[in-house]
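Researcher: I'm preparing a figure for a lab meeting and need a structural model of a single chain. I don't have an experimental structure, so a prediction will have to do for now. The sequence is pasted below. Please return the structure as tokens so I can convert it later.
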Amino acid sequence: MSLTGDLARLLAELGLGTYTPGASGGSIYLSTLPQVPDTCTAVARYAGPESDTRLPYDELNVQVRCRGAVPDAEGVEDRAQAVYDALHGLGDRRLAGGAVLQLAVGNQSGPVFIGRDTNGRPEWTVNFRMELRRSTPNRIA
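Model: Understood. Here is the structure written out token by token.
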């Protein structure tokens, strides 16, 4: 079970869409947005700071990207804001794969409009810094 998949499951648990692992159904996808459906969300990890071996957790950065149909720019912004509202400050939550989300902090003060895709569909992103504690054989949890 991937950590990105765990984060997609978390979004679904929070009522922010549906996630169907390994299938093309649902509205939450891993890493990239598919060509269809118009209205969907992707969750992706990107580089964070260097890990500190003295800390029992890792910091990673996560981006949630929301896209909607051409005439629904306001609805997409609202969905991105709902993601921000649900995740910013969320902590002490065990994820499906066993990792513990200690804290999620929004990297900006809310969603950011990043423009329209090649089909004219509006896209918004929300970025987070997350502290995750994972049990590994080489780490004291």
